[in-house]
Amino acid sequence: MTTATPLDFATVDLATVDLGDASYFADGPPHELFRRMREEEPVHWSPARNWATTPGFWSITRPEDIRTVSLDWKTFSSEAGGAALSNDEIFLAFQRSGIIGMDPPRHDRLKGLFQRGFTPKRVADHEPMIRGIVRRKLDEIEGMGTIDIVEDFTPGIVARVFGSLVSYGPELDENMSQVASFAFNAIAAGEDMDEAVQEWVVWLVKSALALVNERRENPCDDLVSALLEAEIDGERLNTAEIIAIIAILITGGNDSTRSVFAGGLYELLRHPDQFQALVDDPEKIPTAIEELLRLHPAFAHFARTATKDVELGGKTIKRGDKVVLWYPSANMDEATHPCPHALDIERCPEHQTFGAGGRHFCLGAALARLQLKILFEETLARYPEMTLAGDVEWMASPVTPGLSHLPVRLGPAHRS
Asked: What is the rounded average pLDDT of the residues 215-244?
């Protein structure tokens, strides 16, 4: 995938803009460009010049339009063309095997069965496990002085949380983390599924199949066993559906939690007064997390495909056109969020980080919020004098535009 020379987003002719170009995201989401698009051309065509499998797409940047698309699955389908920009056939088949690439009635059936096995109580019951994993990782980095949060801290935590949820051993953590970052991001960033990516996907499917077969023979108190037991009107999930759920949780869940935590911590370290406010009063952390989710959504977009010709924002979207919902733009809408670029840990905003409503609202939102709550509580309590230790770097990705490097100086460790 090639990238173009960075543009001056304040002056660029919007007719030349191609939001499939990763260089636009070299410094994170292009918020100035999104602002202009919301004001001047909220439904915008990008030619997707660098995407071999995608002929172009419509960008939707206003929150009200994103919500309209999200709520109308009959007109804007997740199943017809998948939820990603790439039209790679293997990747599309992978999406359609799970919730992310389904429309009703298949989606509603699978979602209902998933929710039977992934109840709010079951999520809450994992708090001691998650807190223990975070504390052990904090113990490991003690005395290191300066670390990179993205490389040295969060990957091991998130991989082990998911390992504990589905009962795979720590020996698989590194591979699961790699497959999440490599396979998902490589495909979703517009590259054809080459042999290396296919090998990772095959490894993930085989590993998930082994977990399902093991839990079918030896059930225990984990997510896989709960999914095997979930039942509605005598109907249960089949093996392929459970494998797809595991794969989506591992790939999407790995990237999302660590991306939001890194972005949120960076935001707090840039505003020491608000960092200190959370150190002094950890009860404010759940509210602060909503603001950090608004400012740093893990995924920049998901896509839909028009099933018929339709008018939106003064433009005619043709049947078969791909429509891309840009959540960072919605979260920075001035009409919804006064002073949207300012961090306000007491704002408690509505945001579209987990989607804009409808059937595809993120099923892992409760688990993500719980993990983030524990990560911030434990990290700020252990290292209340943490500071930035250098410049950050961004992923330069139109899919997952989070931080790739966040160097911090830990400061003295505090133990309660």
From this structure: 87
